[in-house]
Design goal:
Its EC number is 1.5.1.2. This protein is of the alpha/beta class and about 260 residues long. Helix content is about 50%, strand content about 15%. The two termini are about 45 Å apart.
Amino acid sequence: MEKPTILFIGAGRMAEAIIAGLRAKKENEIERIIVSNQSNIMRLERLKKQYGAETVFQWQEKIHEADTVVLAMPPEEHEEVFMKLRSLVSGQLIVTIAAGIGPSKMESALPESAVSWIMPNTASSIGESMSLYCKGKKPLNALQEKSLKLLLDAIGQAEECTEEEIHHLTAITGSAPAFAYLFAEVLIEKAKEYGISESKAEKLVTQMISGSAAMLMANGNPSALREQVTTPGGSTAEGIKVLEERKYKEMIQDAITAVNRKSLS
């Protein structure tokens, strides 16, 4: 099958994560990677040197050479780019990785284009993202399907969802890692109160979370795993009791609701 040429409009951290993953995992399956960024010349030079990407200041110069265009700029910049793209696209797959920019918005701006929306998370930087994605109404051809799969595989695992599901689930896959990191911070600080050095506390907490995640991946049943650790009447049960009294579950649910409410405002 033909190899795609992928143009990135924007060169931020998520664009770099995808480019790095493509080079590391899919080098032989892509024709070219082109990156555009008008605001940071030094960053473009680094991407060119580190990943062998072609760089250009004006993406319009390379649009007709690309099979897939990845919109890797902030959400608020999309409307301006859509206006410029409208008269330039000619069969390219247009993919956005910006929050809140679903296929319905893209198709309204680019009615003749095949479009897709990918919502990665911060673990993309190490190839461990749990990405959500959906496609627009216009069917993708074989090369476009391949391009989309390459982008997703480059940064980890992915799950296809409806546009509505992504709007709801982004808080869980995208924002909730921050909740997990806050949980780790609290555990580390508490360990330090007991006289444990910060480096030792970080090691203990990091491995505990990593091991717990591995157990969850292997078992897939968090309730069963929690019950295995929680002996009735034991010390863990006492801690769980405090969390329940403080409405831990409701607090997490409220945090997810707050994220979704803010992202849709």
